Amino acid sequence: MNRYRSRIGMLLLSVVLLSACASTGKAVAQLEPGMTKQQVLQILGEPADRSFRGTDEAWQYQEIAGFGQCKYTTVWISGGKLVGISTRRGSSVAGCGLGSQEVDWSQMPSSGS
Questions:
Q1: Could you read off the pLDDT of 12-65 as tens digits, one per residue?
Q2: Helix (H) or strand (E) holding 9
Q3: How far, in Å, CA of 47 to CA of 6, rounded?
Q4: What is the C-alpha to C-alpha distance for residues 15 and 89, in angstroms, rounded to an integer?
Q5: Domain 2-100 maps to which CATH number in 3.30.1450.10, 2.60.120.200, 3.40.50.720, 2.40.50.140?
Q6: Which end of the chain is less enclosed by CB atoms within 10 A, N or C?
């Protein structure tokens, strides 16, 4: 009986960890430079994290990209408009949240304005 409870507990933990990662999947391919923040939210949903620097914003999303792999996507917004996207992959130890990193503002694309 104890082993059965342990398996149920592990299954529930796995479901919680998997659902904690936002799924961006193919939705990122729908994004285009110049889209408004509201359009980005409609396509990707709420980000896992948001960072600000003046009128610049970095929205971070994370998702499981395969067994033991996470995909981290940063959506860069300047003046309320999408200016670029950057992604990276990393190992998943206990969900994707542990692989999150602080925003590196030097990676933000130029808004071209």
A1: 444 444 444 445 668 888 999 999 999 999 999 999 999 999 999 999 998 888
A2: helix 2-19
A3: 32
A4: 21
A5: 3.30.1450.10
A6: N
